[in-house]
Design brief:
184 residues, mainly alpha, Tetracycline Repressor, domain 2, 10 helices, globular, DNA-bd_HTH_TetR-type_CS
Length: 184
């Protein structure tokens, strides 16, 4: 039985949204296709009507996550104050405590190096985010904007990875706070 195109597109979007969330929460290897489909309210069977493989879904999920990152960036005021608010929002306990709703870079970068089908997409999208950050916010010098953007994003993502990795919540909060202070 064939479904209307709009219904098929809606199911595809639901699968992608749930997969992105679950991958950010538990990693690529921590989630099965069956679990993703169950989270969408669909059976396992239709998965292959939407994706050729789990790896294809992983790559598309990374694209989806980076789109959300760029959308959040574009919704931020293009001022020094906007940049400070962006950093504070990113380096928050709320972001740390909700990886499924957060940044793809902080959640999946370590795993991406083991996934050849995902690395190219991740690389392309990271370059796009760096370029967007470099052009979106004001920097002391246009010539150093790309380097400033790389340092800012690497500091933020690294801080989030470390803050999520430690078992001491006060230390985790301190990591986020110190990096925030260094960037704003």
């Amino acid at each position: 039985m064939r479904y209307p195109a709009a219904e098929t597109a809606e199911k595809h979007a639901r699968i992608l949204e749930e997969a992105s969330r679950l991958f950010r929460e538990r990693g690529f290897s921590g989630v099965s296709v069956s679990e993703i489909m169950k989270a969408t309210g669909l059976t396992h069977g239709p998965f292959y009507n939407h994706f050729d493989s789990k790896e294809e879904l992983m790559a598309e999920s990374v694209l989806h996550g980076f789109k959300n990152t760029l959308d959040g960036l574009n919704a931020t005021n293009e001022t020094a104050k906007g940049r400070a608010e962006y950093v504070k929002r990113y380096l928050s306990a709320a972001h740390r405590d909700a990886p499924g709703m957060g940044c793809t870079m902080a959640s999946l970068s370590a795993e991406t190096r083991h996934e050849p089908q995902v690395r190219g997409v991740f690389t392309d999208r990271l370059k796009a985010v760096i370029e967007a950050v470099a052009t979106h916010f004001p920097w002391p010098s246009r010539r150093s904007a790309r380097g400033d953007a790389i340092r800012m994003m690497a500091s933020m993502v690294g801080a989030m990875i470390l803050a999520r990795a430690v078992e001491d919540e006060r230390f985790s909060d301190e990591i986020l706070s110190e990096v925030r202070k260094g960037l704003v």
